Structures are given as C-alpha cells and as structure tokens.
Amino acid sequence: TAMLHDLVERLASVVPLRIYTSAVEWAAITMQPLWALNYLHWLAHYSEHVAEPDCPPGWGWDFWQFSSTGHVDGISTNVDLSRSNAPADTDAALRAGIGADAAEILRLTT
Q: Among candidates 49, 40, 51, 34, which has minimal Cα distance to 90?
C-alpha cells in the first residue's frame, strides 16, 4: 500500500481528492490502511434495496453510488446515481461544481 499512499498524497497536494471504490475492492487493493480515513469516502455499491452501502470495517461513507443505470431528463444514456452523506459544506461545494473534474477522483475499481 505504500505506492498507493504515495500516489494519493501527491494527487491530494494538487487537487481535492475523494477515494471512489467498493468495500470489496478497497480491502483487496489496500488492506484498509489507516491513512485513507483522512479522505472523503465515495463507495460504489449498486443496490437501491439497502439503507446504506457496505463499508470496510471502521469506515463510514460520504458518497454512495448506488446505480450506474439511472435516468435524467435531457440525457439519453444511463447516468450514475449517488447519495450524499457528506458534511453540508462539502456537499454544497461538489454540487456547485468545485472539484467535480474527473481528474480529481481516484477511481480504484476495475
């Protein structure tokens, strides 16, 4: 996990960073390092039939992508659907487009 930690630290020094992954992938890739607790957690768990996503032990979630097949008026293709559990100021900043660039998201899923 040292190489991953170094990559995350370098990215976080340049742009706001969120870690996007699933609980299973995170455990497989990182062995759940403590340093990751300092970042927002955006978990992928595709289900509309559970109250919250599966989280690695000791984690909470800030954002939960629960679908990749959502529909939005004016968009003809499927879109990702997510829920927020983040602090209000963080959620408002993301909704306003601050930090929404794809280069700012470290996507750990395959």
A: 40
